[in-house]
Amino acid sequence: xxxxxxxxxxxxxxxxxxxxxxxxxxxxxxxxxxxxxxxxxxxxxxxxxxxxxxxxxxxxxxxxxxxxxxxxxxxxxxxxxxxxxxxxxxxxxxxxxxxxxxxxxxxxxxxxxxxxxxxxxxxxxxxxxxxxxxxxxxxxxxxxxxxxxxxxxxxxxxxxxxxxxxxxxxxxxxxxxxxxxxxxxxxxxxxxxxxxxxxxxxxxxxxxxxxxxxxxxxxxxxxxxxxxxxxxxxxxxxxxxxxxxxxxxxxxxxxxxxxxxxxxxxxxxxxxxxxxxxxxxxxxxxxxxxxxxxxxxxxxxxxxxxxxxxxxxxxxxxxxxxxxxxxxxxxxxxxxxxxxxxxxxxxxxxxxxxxxxxxxxxxxxxxxxxxxxxxxxxxxxxxxxxxxxxx
Length: 391
What we know:
Blueprint: H1 23-55, H2 62-88, H3 106-114, H4 117-146, H5 151-170, H6 174-229, H7 231-259, H8 262-267, H9 269-277, E1 284-289, H10 296-317, E2 322-329, E3 332-339, H11 353-361, E4 366-370, E5 377-384
Parallel strand pairs: 1-2
Antiparallel strand pairs: 2-3, 3-5, 4-5
């Protein structure tokens, strides 16, 4: 699986300027001439919004009014990006919508709106555009009549500044916007995964331990009734109930192990992975090269990732040997699971690989699968390390 960047490249590179008024030059001229009216509108909006919001900040409506003004500034930024896209060929992604916690109170939502960096950059763009709009209009309009031969070069030089302004002030902050989009997507994955795990635990409890405990209670009730009349039968029923208790306890232990195994908590990844490797149908060589333990949550994800991969090897790979390697590289935890089986695994092949990739992605991890038909199969997983004290 190859990790790619989904952002579209900015294709706003026009052809070189020439001594000719081609369509690119005419579009640049149109952009420069329209700078003045749009700059006036943006400047007036920015001044009125900031002045009114600041003047009324001591009242109950001042800050909400300023927050609403920032939302309007986002709209002005969108129109300017559209104008630059149409006339200058500058393709810039739209910033992510303002993320406001639904469960937060009014003050929390207000504060989030007031510190919106996209809105404030659009306001700054509105302020600085007025002098630039006056300058470009003043230079281009006379040039249409007296500097016709060199007008393409004048337009190109001026619109280069325009392009820089749009990219600098109206582009989304790449890292911040990327992380916001990832977190919004990952939050949905985490919620879905947690809901599925809760349903599995509920189902296992209902169909397993709970059913056995109900049967145990009924058996003990019958044994109590026969205790005086038929002690021998009562003793047999108590013996059966004792066996049911053992089975119920084992099922509860298995369920708890599926949530978080005790050996992982007590002894770490080396012992825990060796334990699950011993249950694989193929001999597994485990190598864990860690001088300290990662965050507890990361350690648990690593354990269950290897557990599912080894289960896949047992069920599907028909492998003769397998290996698990775990090591640390800088602030990342690296896991590699290899087998010499038949290969052909894929993220959409129904073996749970896609779910593993989603779970790792939800914590800023990576999942790389290499499994040609005929084998071998190598899965490399990468997780953030995170200090154990901050888990």
